[in-house]
Specification:
By secondary structure, the chain is of the alpha+beta class. It has one domain (about 1-55): Arc Repressor Mutant, subunit A (Orthogonal Bundle). The protein is about 55% helix and about 20% strand. It has helices spanning about 1-5, 10-25, 45-55; strands at about 30-35, 35-40. The protein has a two-stranded antiparallel ribbon with strand order 1-2. A hairpin with a 2-residue loop joins strand 1 (about 30-35) and strand 2. About 0% of the residues are buried.
């Protein structure tokens, strides 16, 4: 979590909590290798959000 929280100005537990919400929403996925947690943005989820925003921006 060190690299994910570096320079954000918030605590590691706060970053962990926010990442958990993003994981549950399918925006971020996590792979655990030993003690290392690799985080990945799920582009498909982001495209779906972007499409939804584009649609509603015009309304």
């Amino acid at each position: 979590m060190g690299q994910a929280s570096a320079g954000l100005g918030i605590s590691k537990p706060a970053v962990t909590k926010h990442l958990k919400v993003l994981e549950e929403a399918g925006v971020v996925s996590r792979t655990v290798r030993g003690r290392t947690h690799l985080l990945k943005l799920e582009q498909r989820s982001l495209r779906e959000v972007s499409s939804w925003l584009d649609l509603h921006r015009g309304l």
